[in-house]
Amino acid sequence: MTALRQDVQPPAPTDARAGVPGTAANRAVVTGFFAAVNERRLADLPRYLAADVIDHNKIIHGEPDEPGAAFEAIAMQLAAFEPYHARVDELLVEGDRVVARITQSGVNSGAHPRMPRPTGRSFENEAMFVFTLAGGRITEMRAVSDRLGLFLQLGWDWPTVD
Asked: CA 70, 73, 78 angle in degrees (round to 5)?
């Protein structure tokens, strides 16, 4: 039986993605994005989102399926849920990806494509976002949330198949 040599170290890991911003920069972009959303600074969103950002899991039903549509969707979401707040509970950063686990809360105080008449009811649920970043901006968003819990809390009817 051959003994393992203790003096031999494995090669240091390398990052083959030269030019990818560091974790601190990507963390700052995502936390800045959530701060802008929470503070209703819609004019600042282009600092955090690429102009052609792709939202793979549409934030709001009725959002056009085209790059950059997330800007209008975020504005619609904030108008439908005032007040709205996203508390960042956890961030995991690796290379050009940031995963955010958030708790979001708000009140259905405005029209929403799913519920044109506001219910006035509040909600709180968890959501997970996976952001891809390039050039210091978010270029892709994927998200899942507890939509059943959201619909139950807001008193919305569950969607049916047409």
From this structure: 125
Residue 35: its H or E element: helix 23-38
- Residue 32 tokens, joined: 């800045």
Per residue in 102-126, pLDDT (tens digit) is 999 999 999 877 777 899 999 999 9
Q: Can you tell me the distance from the alpha carbon of 60 to that of 82, in angstroms, rounded to the nearest whole number?
A: 15
The Cβ of residue 16 has, within 10 Å, a number of other Cβ atoms equal to 7
The label of the residue with tokens 């399926």 reads 65
Write the CA distances from 82 to 48, 90, 161, integer angstroms. Answer: 22, 24, 29
Rg (CA), the chain: 20
Strands (DSSP E) contained in 68-136 are 81-94, 97-108, 122-134
Q: pLDDT tens for residues 10-56?
A: 333 334 344 444 788 999 999 999 999 999 999 999 999 999 999 88
Helix (H, G, I), strand (E, B) or coil at 86: strand
pTM score of the predicted model: 0.81
State how far the Cα of 48 lies from the Cα of 31, in Å rounded to an integer: 9
